[in-house]
Amino acid sequence: MSEVYFANTKCRPNRGMLHKLSELCSRVGMREVIKERDIVAVKTHFGEAGSTAFVPVMYVRALVEEVRKVGGRPFVTDSNTLYVGGRATAINHLRTAAANGFTMETVGAPIIIADGLKGHDFEEVEIEGEVLKKVKIASAFVQSDAYVVISHLTGHEFMGFGCAIKNVGMGMGSRGGKQQMHSDIKPAVNRDRCTGCGECVKWCPAGAISLLDREKRKVARIDRELCLGCGECTVMCFRGAIQARLTGVLENSQKKVVEYVMGALKEKENKVVFFNFLINITPDCDCWNYSDARVVEDIGILASRDIVAIDQASLDLLNERAGRDVYRELYPNVDYVRQIEYAERMGLGTREYQLISVDD
Length: 360
Ligand code: SF4
Ligand code: SF4
Prior knowledge:
Layout: E1 2-8, H1 17-28, H2 30-33, E2 39-43, H3 57-69, E3 73-78, H4 90-99, H5 104-107, E4 111-113, E5 122-126, E6 134-138, H6 139-142, E7 146-152, E8 154-156, E9 160-162, H7 164-169, H8 175-182, E10 187-189, H9 199-203, E11 209-214, E12 217-222, H10 232-236, E13 242-244, H11 250-265, E14 272-278, E15 300-304, H12 307-322, H13 326-330, H14 337-345, E16 353-357
Parallel strand pairs: 1-16, 2-3, 2-7, 3-4, 7-14
Antiparallel strand pairs: 1-15, 5-6, 8-9, 10-13, 11-12, 14-15
Helix pairs in contact: 1-3, 8-11, 11-14
One iron/sulfur cluster binds next to helix 10.
């Protein structure tokens, strides 16, 4: 059974969320994980341009300070995205991060995009996954001595929900790695619904969508050979004209994300602390250029050294607070439990946990 520490959102003078975060660091054993002069990757998500629900900068800064307190040398990081958005190259990524409040001055440490200028800096790591035997992990993660992983609980179109497992698996893979994880999902256009607005064409990172003249109107068409399966178009089409063919492929994609976690955590035994933020919990992930209304009131922050236990505890707290199975309702075609089950089966942690409150 693993330990998961929990701070709720109830605060009073001299006992705010940053005080509680500091206590979570002590209780989870940050000092045992990070040794003097360790280079520590503080993995966060800077939020897509237009997103507003990502974990705010003051928490990232506080964790940077905690790393320093125990003698580590922190840098704040994420890897480039597969889709076009505002974070596909290090240049855009840093600009988007700055626009969302993350600069070297505000986080108190250098910001380094983990897979380099264009997402080509990675190292291949061998794993014993059921689907993959090698994964492409962004170099800066492989070369770090330890990680502090900051994850935000949200929904996700093919994982069902995203938190620590998704943040590490997808977020520590290079751009090529992300392509590998998405490659099974090939959407198709419903011509009856398509109005030919062309929005999807602008967002497709692979140039796989074109507008064809059909019966005196424009209709989108996807070239399946070119499609990377990133799923961007399925969300960007607000007419619901593009749907991913999920049957039979989702399980593979979810497994691949978990296998990327195996690669990212290889050689990092007892060198990682996970923090899950259950605040501003939205239906979609922070990679979109908007944040919808939260699905439930804020719950708090969790800390653990077990990636499986902390995600399981996060879901349990969410569903208990909401009184319903939130992401099953939002993504009925996605079995979100599969990612946790597979992660446990692959030896990444246990779903059995003890929730330890740091509140009075
Ligand atoms: S598929 Fe959707 S976004 Fe693309 S052209 Fe048709 S209506 Fe517009
Ligand atoms: S067509 Fe394929 S590559 Fe292009 S946005 Fe859609 S899923 Fe991504």
